[in-house]
Amino acid sequence: PPAPLPRGARGEVVATSSLKHASRVSDSTRWIDLRNVRHHNLNGVNARFPLGCLCVISGVSGAGKTSLLEGVLWPALCRALKQSCSVTPVGQYDELLGANAIEQALLVDDSPLVGGSRSNPATWLKAFDEIRKLFAESAEAKNRLLSPAYFSFNNEAGGRCPKCEGTGSVAIDMQFLADVVMHCPECNGRRFTREALEITWRNLSIADVLALTASDAFVFFKGHRRLQRRLKSLKDVGLGYLTLGQPLNTLSGGEAQRLKLAATLARSQRRTLVLMNEPTTGLHPQDVEHLLKCFHDLLEVGQSLIIVENDPMVLAAADFVIELGPGAGPDGGRLIRG
After folding, report:
1. Which SS3 state, helix, strand or coil, does residue 324 take?
2. Which of 21, 33, 164, 197 is deepest in the core (most CB within 10 A)?
C-alpha cells in the first residue's frame, strides 16, 4: 500500500515532495524576456522566464496568469518560431527576446484531443504502430501474408470489424431521443473480425492487447525498448491505469492534458519549451508527485517548463516563481514576484 501522506497538527495534508533539489537557475541560465505586455488586466508587465528550469506562474484566480501564458507568451513564441497558433485575440507586447535559444514550443492544455472515434492512447502515442508490426511478424500472420496495415482501424480491407468499422460500438437512432450506443453485435466490442483475432502474439490477440492497461502492457512487451519507452511515459504521468484501447473521447480534461504530456515525454526532444495551464487540477497529492517526477525527466533531457499552477507541492519544487496579483480583475495584472 502507498505510504501515508504527511499531515500537520490539524490533520491537513502537508505539501512536501521527495524531489528536493537546488534551484537550476544559475549565472549561465538563458532567459525568455517578454516586455510591456498589454492584455486584459495585464498593463505594462515585463516578465522573464528561465530556460532549462521549472518556472511556475502563480497568483489568485483572475490575476492574469492564463492571459500571460496563453494569451501573450504562447502566440509570441509561435510567431518567433514560425509555428501555427490558433489563439485569438493575441495580446499586445513590445518585444520577445531569447526565443532563439529553443527549437520549438508546445502548449499542453486540457482541450479535447484531436482524433476520430477509433483513436486511443496507443494510437495517440504511436505505440499502436509498433504493436501492429509485432503482430505482422508472427508466424500465422506471415503464413497469411498479412502486413501491419491489416491490423489498422483505418484499413477498410483489413481485419477491422466491418459493422462498427473498428470502434467496437454502434449507435442506434432513437429518432426524437438521444442515440443509444451499445457494443457491436458483430464483434462484441472487440473491434476486429474473427479471422484477425486468430492471430496472436505471446498468446494474446490484438484485442486482448488493447484491453491491457499501460502498466500491464509495459511488462507484457518486455524486451521491446522503443515500445516500452512510449508506454513508460503513460506510467510516468500517472496514467498507467488507462487501457491502450480506451477511446480518447472518454478521457477527462486532466487525463487528456497528461496524455499530451506523455507524448512530449516519449519524443524527448531537446531545446523544447513546454507550456502548461494548471496540470494538477483534480489530482491527488500522490499523483502530483508522479507529475513532478515527469517534469524532472523532461528537464533532464534539456527541455524547459513554464506552467500556471498554485499547487503547494509544485511551488515547492519550482526553480523560479512568477507571481501576479495582488487581487483579481482590475486589482490584479501586476508583477508581484519574479
Report:
1. strand
2. 164
Closest CA to 227 of 138, 297, 130: 130
How far apart are alpha carbons 291 and 285 in whole angstroms? Answer: 10
Cis preceding linkage at 326, omega within 30:
yes
| 3-state helix/strand/coil string of 42-63 | EEEEEEEEECCCEEEEECCCCC
16-66 pLDDT tens trace: 444 556 789 999 999 999 999 999 999 999 999 999 999 999 999 999 999
Beta bridge partners of 245: none
From the list 113, 45, 54, the residue with the least C-alpha distance to 73 is: 45
Tell the residue number behind the cell numbers 503482430, with chain if given.
Answer: 135
Q: Give how far Cα 256 sits from Cα of 35, 54, 292, Å.
A: 32, 21, 17
Alpha carbon distance 194, 59 (integer Å): 56
| Bond before 279 cis per omega within 30 degrees | no
pLDDT for res 123: 94
Find all residues with CB under 8 Å of 290, minimum gap 6, and list them. Answer: 236, 237, 238
Residue with cell 486584459: 40
Handedness of CA 83, 85, 89, 91 (dihedral sign): negative
pLDDT of residue 21: 65
